[in-house]
C-alpha cells in the first residue's frame, strides 16, 4: 500500500491501482452522506479534483493521486457512502486508475511513513 | 484570539470523548464518539441530552409580572401580557427596519418573565433590554445556572423518573421541578422537532444531573452537529443564518408568532421596533419568503448556494441559508429565501452546485413530523 499526503491509499491490483481514503481521513470527516465519482474512461492528471465527498459536516474534494485513466468506479459507494466509514480500505474504495507514469508512485509514503505523518 | 468560555458541563464533554469546537465564544461539543448521524437518530428514536448552557438566561422583573411583560412588549411583537402563568412562547426582538435582532423563548414564571436567548446575541440582547427597560424593571442575566435540553420520545419517561410532575406538563408549559433534590426550572420545549424539555439548574449541580440522565439506557449525549441537522429537518430557524437583522418576520415566515393582539386592529397593535414596516408587509406581502427546499438528487446543498428560476436564468432569485443531509429524511434538505413570485409550494427552482444547476422542490416544513406533546 502507498499513501499520499492527502490521506489517500493506493493498492496495486494487476496493472491498475485501487484508490480510497484512509480511516484516519474518514474519522476526521465524520459520517459520509454523498460521494460523486468520476466517469470510467476519464483521463485525469495528478491533483485534479475528481471526487466530491460530503460528510454530515462539509464538502471536500479528493484529488487524483497520479496521472492516468479511470478504469472502474465503486458504484456501491455512491449508493451507500457510509461504506467509506465502515470499511475505508476495503468496501469503501473510490475508483481504480491505470497509471500513465508509474514513477509517480515512487515518492509516496509507505504505511510506516503515513502513520508517522498522522502522529 | 480571546479565550473560549466553558460551560459547567465542559469537563463532562471531555470525559465523554467529545470533539470540541469554538461556537459563539464557547468551547462546545460538536459530536461525541457516537457520531453526528447516530446522535441524530438516537434523538429521534429515544432521547438525547444537549448542553445549551451557552445560551443566555435572563430574568426580567418589575413590581408585577404585568409590568415586566408590558416593558418587553415594547421590544418584542408578541402577546406577553396575556401569557398564562407557567406558560412559554416563542418570540423575537425586532429592529427599526423591521428586521430580527434575535429569536428567543419567553416564559411567565409568576412574578417575572424568564427569557432564553441565543449565545451569539446574548450580550447585545441584554444591553438592549437594560437600555430600554431599566430602571423601571430589572434585567438580570443568570450566570450561575446551566441549561440542558433532553429531547426525544423517551424524554418524558426519563424526566418523570426523577419528578413525576414532568409527565403532566404540556408543550410550552413551564414548571419548577425537583430533580434529585436540585431545583430545576423546566419547560416542555426544545429545538429538535421532538417532544422534550429544557432544564435550567444551578451550575454546580449540572454535571451530577447530566450524569444521572445519561445513566438511563435511553439517553445519549448529543453534540451541536446533530442539533443542527435535527432543527433543520424540523424547519426551525438558526439565527444568523435563516433569519438576521435584515430579514423581517414576514420574510422569515414567522408571522404566525406575532400575536393577534399586536397586529393591525389588535388591542395593543404595534408599539415594537419596526412595527410600521412589519405591519405593512403583513398587509401587502413581502418581496421574498423563507421556504423549505428538497434537492432532487443526493447531493447536499448548503448555506450560500444561489437559487435560480431555471437552468439557464442569469440572475438568482434567492439563496440557501441552511442545508445539509437529513438523516431521518434520508437525503438532503435545505431552507432558504426565494422571491415571492417563486415561493409557491411545489415550485421547482435550481441551485448552482459546483458549476451545475440542480433542481430543488419547494416543500412544506417541517421535513419530518413534529412530535410535540400538545
Write the layout of secondary structure elements.
The complex is a heterodimer of chains A (119) and B (374).
Chain A: E1 2-3, E2 8-13, E3 16-21, H1 23-29, E4 32-36, E5 43-44, E6 49-55, E7 59-63, E8 68-73, H2 75-79, H3 83-86, E9 95-99, H4 111-118
Antiparallel strand pairs in A: 1-2, 2-3, 3-9, 4-6, 5-8, 6-7, 8-9
Chain B: H1 10-15, E1 19-23, E2 26-31, H2 36-45, E3 47-51, E4 56-61, H3 65-73, E5 88-94, E6 100-108, E7 112-117, H4 122-133, E8 138-141, E9 145-151, H5 155-160, E10 174-179, E11 182-187, E12 196-202, H6 203-214, E13 219-221, H7 224-233, H8 275-284, E14 288-295, E15 306-308, E16 318-326, E17 331-339, E18 348-353, E19 356-363
Parallel strand pairs in B: 3-13
Antiparallel strand pairs in B: 1-2, 3-9, 4-7, 4-8, 5-6, 6-7, 9-12, 10-11, 11-12, 14-17, 14-19, 15-16, 15-18, 16-17, 18-19
Polypeptide structure, described:
The complex is a heterodimer of chains A (119) and B (374). Chain A is an alpha+beta fold. Chain A has helices at residues 23-29, 75-79, 83-86, 111-118; strands at residues 2-3, 8-13, 16-21, 32-36, 43-44, 49-55, 59-63, 68-73, 95-99. Chain A has four helices and nine strands, in the order E-E-E-H-E-E-E-E-E-H-H-E-H. With 374 residues, chain B is an alpha+beta fold. Helix content of chain B is 20%, strand content 32%. Chain B has helices spanning 10-15, 36-45, 65-73, 122-133, 155-160, 203-214, 224-233, 275-284; strands spanning 19-23, 26-31, 47-51, 56-61, 88-94, 100-108, 112-117, 138-141, 145-151, 174-179, 182-187, 196-202, 219-221, 288-295, 306-308, 318-326, 331-339, 348-353, 356-363. In chain B, helix 2 packs across helix 7 (224-233). The N and C termini of chain B lie far apart (45 Å). The interface between A and B is medium-sized, with 12 and 17 residues.
Keywords:
heterodimer; A: 119 residues; alpha+beta; 6-stranded antiparallel beta sheet; 3-stranded antiparallel beta sheet; 4 helices; 9 strands; 37% strand; B: 374 residues; 6-stranded mixed beta sheet; 6-stranded antiparallel barrel; 8 helices; globular
Amino acid at each position: 500500500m502507498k499513501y499520499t499526503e492527502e490521506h489517500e491509499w493506493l493498492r496495486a491490483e494487476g496493472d491498475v491501482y485501487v484508490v480510497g481514503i484512509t480511516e484516519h481521513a474518514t474519522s476526521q470527516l465524520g459520517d459520509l452522506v454523498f460521494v460523486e465519482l468520476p466517469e470510467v474512461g476519464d483521463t485525469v492528471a495528478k491533483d485534479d479534483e475528481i471526487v466530491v465527498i460530503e460528510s454530515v459536516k462539509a464538502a471536500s474534494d479528493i484529488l487524483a493521486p497520479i496521472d492516468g485513466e479511470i478504469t472502474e468506479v465503486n458504484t456501491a459507494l455512491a449508493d451507500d457512502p457510509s461504506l467509506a466509514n465502515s470499511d475505508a480500505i476495503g468496501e469503501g474504495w473510490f475508483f481504480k486508475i491505470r497509471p500513465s507514469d508509474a514513477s509517480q508512485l515512487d515518492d509516496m509514503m509507505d504505511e510506516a511513513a503515513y502513520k508517522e505523518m498522522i502522529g | 484570539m480571546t479565550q473560549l468560555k466553558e460551560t459547567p458541563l465542559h469537563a463532562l464533554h471531555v470525559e465523554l470523548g467529545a470533539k470540541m469546537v469554538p461556537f459563539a465564544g464557547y468551547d462546545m461539543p460538536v459530536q461525541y464518539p457516537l457520531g453526528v448521524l447516530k446522535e441524530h437518530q438516537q434523538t429521534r428514536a429515544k432521547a438525547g441530552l444537549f448542553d445549551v448552557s451557552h445560551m443566555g438566561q435572563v430574568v426580567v422583573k418589575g413590581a408585577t409580572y404585568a409590568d415586566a411583560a408590558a416593558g418587553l412588549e415594547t421590544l418584542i411583537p408578541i402577546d406577553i401580557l396575556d401569557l398564562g402563568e407557567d406558560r412559554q412562547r416563542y418570540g423575537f426582538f425586532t429592529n427599526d427596519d423591521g428586521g430580527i435582532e434575535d429569536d428567543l423563548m419567553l416564559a411567565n414564571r409568576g412574578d417575572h418573565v424568564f427569557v432564553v436567548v441565543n449565545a451569539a446575541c446574548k450580550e447585545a440582547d441584554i444591553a438592549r433590554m437594560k437600555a430600554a427597560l431599566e430602571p423601571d424593571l430589572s434585567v438580570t442575566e443568570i450566570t450561575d445556572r446551566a441549561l440542558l435540553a433532553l429531547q426525544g420520545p423517551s424524554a418524558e419517561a426519563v424526566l418523570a423518573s426523577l419528578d413525576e410532575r414532568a409527565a403532566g406538563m404540556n408543550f410550552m408549559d413551564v414548571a419548577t421541578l425537583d430533580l434529585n433534590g436540585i431545583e430545576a426550572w423546566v419547560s416542555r420545549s426544545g429545538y429538535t422537532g421532538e417532544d422534550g424539555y429544557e432544564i435550567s439548574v444551578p451550575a454546580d449541580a449540572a454535571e451530577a444531573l447530566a450524569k444521572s440522565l445519561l445513566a438511563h439506557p435511553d439517553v445519549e449525549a448529543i453534540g451541536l452537529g446533530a442539533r443542527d441537522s435535527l432543527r433543520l429537518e424540523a424547519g426551525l430557524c438558526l439565527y444568523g443564518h435563516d433569519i438576521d437583522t435584515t430579514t423581517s418576520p414576514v420574510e422569515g415566515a414567522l408571522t404566525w408568532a406575532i400575536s393577534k393582539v399586536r397586529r393591525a386592529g389588535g388591542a395593543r397593535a404595534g408599539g415594537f421596533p419596526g412595527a410600521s414596516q412589519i405591519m405593512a408587509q403583513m398587509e401587502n406581502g413581502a418581496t421574498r419568503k423563507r421556504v423549505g427546499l428538497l434537492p432532487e438528487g443526493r447531493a447536499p446543498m448548503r448555506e450560500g448556494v444561489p437559487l435560480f428560476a431555471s437552468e439557464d436564468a442569469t440572475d438568482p432569485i434567492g439563496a440557501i441559508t441552511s442545508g445539509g443531509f437529513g438523516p431521518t429524511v434520508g437525503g438532503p434538505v435545505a431552507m432558504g429565501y426565494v422571491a415571492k413570485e417563486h415561493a409557491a409550494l411545489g415550485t421547482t427552482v435550481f441551485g448552482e452546485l459546483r458549476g451545475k444547476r440542480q433542481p430543488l422542490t419547494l416543500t412544506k416544513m417541517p421535513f419530518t413530523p413534529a412530535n410535540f406533546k400538545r
